[in-house]
Fold each of these.
Amino acid sequence: MSRLFAPAASALRPVVLWGLAGASLLVLSIVFGITVGETPLPLSRVLAVLANNLWNAGHAVDPIDAGIIWSYRVPRTLVAAACGAGLALSGVVLQAIVRNPLADPYLLGVSAGAGTGAVAVTILGLGSGLVGMSAGAFAGASLSFLLVVLLARAAGGGSPQLVLAGIAGSQLFNALTSFLITKSANAEQARGITYWLLGNLSGIRWPDVSLAIPAALAGLVACLWFARALDAFSFGASSAASLGIAVRRVQVILIGATTLMTATMVSLVGSIGFVGLVIPHAMRFMVGPRHYRLVPAAALAGAVFLIAADVTSRVLIPSQVVPIGVVTALVGAPGFALILIRNRRRA
Amino acid sequence: MKLSASDLGWCAGGRAIVDGVSLDIVPGETFGLVGPNGSGKSTLLRLLAGLMPRARGRVLLDDVPMEGMSRRDIARRVAFVEQMADTSEALTVRDAVELGRTPWLSALSPFGYEDRRIVTEAMDAAGMGHMEDHAWATLSGGERQRVHIARALAQRPRLLMLDEPTNHLDIHHQLSLLRLVSKLRVTVIMALHDLNQAMNCDRLGVMEQGRLVACGAPGDVLSPELVASIFRVHVTALTDPADNSTVFRFHSLEDRR
């Protein structure tokens, strides 16, 4: 038994150090995300409100400021962090499992399917409320991913086929969404849904947090638990099987976790592209391809990136909120271009 | 490790790729599989390693049925080196070899000193110890194949299967790789293309159209008649004056007419 525990103790030190550094970075980003916004609020007031709510510190704060901070900005920033982490993790998992550097929930049609599902629930009034919308998004996401995988397999099952099938799936489900909106929504609903689909965090309140954070944490735990299995896919599924991985089971669990995360995030904030694609590649570049490092790094970077993108979307144009999907695409598209060029060099 | 397979079969698109193969592997031997392209060597190897879905027949590892074992249990006993498996991940040699420890680790028993030592040992055994920091993309075909073998050794298998390990390698790397495999103290089953290289195995199995048509000592199995009928070449056995071993020279059957 000493063989098991002695190395674990010494291996724990870097884990604790990096964990602390990562947690500090995350907390700083969250405080930053809460502080910056249309209504300028000094950091001291933000900290006072946080202290009041977290441990009843009893600082005297203007109730309007307290309301803005605690009811709007805190949940919004927390959901941004959870969404960023969830989308980045989804990208990590999909890229490892389908062995395609271009895989992410957005390109493979998972986001589009989730959007269709959520819109269907909203407009047709199937089920209701937050959970109903998330369930609809999950059903849509699963359906579209299944269709994309089946189409890719029918087309020969290669990596390029998967990307092409993903494009077809995205187009199909985006068209279905538009169809649903045109057919059934009134003008006001249509405007709201279109705006939400581009990615929008302005409607986020505390109940959303209780959906986003558990989803992101569940995804993170699943990815960390299977970090070694994800590594084993480096040389393909059959090589993973010969290394003792129960390939089918791992694929089902991890793709399920990915779909769950993507569906939850899309039902809360709409479809946000490029986070799942660019963040995992940037992190591979920084911490290497091994998943026990890549998974936590991508989750952290995704969270920080989406907080920053949300802040940018709020302050970019004074008194106007730019959809966050627009901000991530403005940063992500050049990042995507870099990935394409880097891949060409390697081939 | 002892392996016995009975009545193995596998079909694709209504065609039998492997058909009714039974085979017993003796502990410690090096068993070679030869046969023309498409004769089912690779599929048979994968069946023996339990890697094919919807397979017919059964495989016993040390008298234990493989179908009742988990993938992890199998991977602790059997390592498999595929033909030229590649990756686009920026892995180093050490990263790739560490993958071999996968069946011995879990989220609760992480990679430790002992695993590190086994990985170093495996890299040294495969002659890749001096290149542990090199990136996968920079390695030559021969080096990649050695990394795969080191990865398989890090699995600490009792049975090692290799699918045409000398494919795409230059003659120097072919010979050094076969020498490396022959020095290993594990049971080996490998598919080979080169009949002269196959002569160094303890026993040979000859595949034709999914069936195992001959099995035994290389000198007995590779008779001129069998080589002519299965590989469609005429063979002359020569004696190498350097060590009195038998070498084959091949002639096209058409030339003889």
Amino acid sequence: MTQWSGYFGLILQGALVTIELTLMGSVLALIMAFLAGLGRLSRFFVLRALATAYIEFFRGTSIFVQLFWAYFVLPFAGISLTPLQAGVLALGLNVGAYAAEVVRGAIKSIGREQYEACTALNLGRWQAMRHIILPQALLVMLPTFGNNAIELLKATAVVSLISLADLTFQAQVVRSQTGNTLVPFSTILVIYFVLALLISWGVRSLERRMARGLDGVRV
Amino acid sequence: MSAPIIKIDGISKSFGTFKVLDGLSMQVMPGEKLALIGPSGSGKTTILRILMTLERIDSGHIQVDGEQLYHMERNGRLLTADERHLAKMRQKIGMVFQLFNLFPHKCVIDNVTLAPMLTKAMPRAAAEKRAMELLDMVGMVDKAKAMPAQLSGGQKQRVAIARALALSPKIMLFDEVTSALDPELVDEVLNVMRKLAAETDMTMLLVTHEMGFAHDFADRVLFFDRGRIVEEGKPDEIFRHPKQERTQGFLKKIIAAGHRV
């Protein structure tokens, strides 16, 4: 009889690493999304070009290759990252590129009449963005941000390839030690699914809170 | 006799190949209440939008309150206005839109206090005190904490008027402010504007299809067609004894459509 309790302990440790990666990666992705999303809408050509280059590069190359660059190639440039740092960097930059387009699209979806009201009230460009456009655009972004966060969660599995002991890595360990594939991989399947459900649920409740009052029914 | 507060000198504006304004000139005196009427596409709304700097002109000059709107004088030369100059000029002008354009994520009082706090660095307490006075004037005090989505069209428009007034502009532009309202809500907005006209000496420009209101409210009526002023005069002259054929035709159509004159 295999000592399953010890192996479940391993998988739980892996789950913590996966959660940590997802949270830190999401924070970086969010920062990059707003930087690049606003950059693409900038009046200045240089900012637009930089943002576009970033978005196209990180959307257009594989997360797998990006991770290997961060972990194995950057050291040649004198930048050595821990597996966790490399994982957060690759995941954040990759998902941030997708989310940047979400930011841009949401901002563009706010009607011209809101911008015109801002002009008529003599708000500056940044004031209008900060107080009027972004708060409304955020609500448009949220559902897709939820998608992006779930994508990021699932993409964390690739970090097992640079020996970071996440869920997938630990499942491999258990598999090689017990020869059993069904149990560890069914377990992590369920855990990934539950984590994704938590993200969906969190984003939905955030959405409900932010939409309060906008439809004229709830206050 | 004092100087005009708005002096429009030969302005033209095209959207693509469509010439909305064609060498238009007009003047508005301080405190004057002006009604701009005419068929749609005649350029009357475009004039308001140009004065609010929502559209740029292709050629011509505009003076507001003694200063060039789209140009600035530097060392005796006339340059195209930069954003700072435009921001300075916008302080003189306020606008109310056909579709209210309230900020849906902010409650009524925040809609009114936002601009004074941001653009004039007014402290919150002072801004809210002023906002409550204005909301009182438009009869919306009890809805100060309501969200725009909870208001009727007429209520929204009254809040929008208070919001524009909060910046104390010298000139107010009203762009078809009752066109989007249900008929029974039109009067509550028009009453606020009557009150405003009676209690302040603000210059008011009004684009409207409410001919009855234009007749009572305006000191002068301008009839626009195809980017030009076809006829202007006292409300009685324009509405009772229009001289131009196009004015007569337009008024006939408007009356046939059931508008009050």
